[in-house]
Design goal:
Layout: E1 2-5, E2 9-16, E3 19-27, E4 32-36, E5 49-54, E6 59-64, E7 69-75
Antiparallel strand pairs: 1-2, 2-3, 4-5, 5-6, 6-7
Protein name: RSE1/DDB1/CPSF1 second beta-propeller domain-containing protein
Length: about 90
């Protein structure tokens, strides 16, 4: 589970065996507008990536899970504010 709370807080939780455990928490410099951890790749039950959209700098960032280490950051330019994102693997 990936949660975005006020103030740019991003929290990664794992649920199992009747417990919820906080794995990682990071503070981002801007408010989070949207996020997704849809599993892509070999394991259909666990995501290796998280994508996060940001309000203020109008960017989308990709983080590795579970450590929430940033892989890349892409500025969208103009006035395109990310309001929803989806991780998806295309065939081919």
């Amino acid at each position: 589970v990936l949660l975005a709370t006020g103030g740019g807080h991003l929290v990664y939780l794992e649920v199992g065996n009747g417990t919820i455990m906080e794995v990682k928490h990071v503070q981002l410099e801007y408010e989070i507008s949207c996020l997704d951890i849809n599993p892509i790749g070999e394991d259909p039950y666990r995501s290796q990536l998280a994508v996060v959209g940001m309000w203020t700098d109008i960017s989308v960032r990709i983080f590795s899970l579970p450590g929430l280490d940033i892989i890349t950051k892409e500025h969208l330019g103009g006035e395109i504010i990310p309001r929803s994102v989806l991780l998806c693997a295309f065939e081919g």
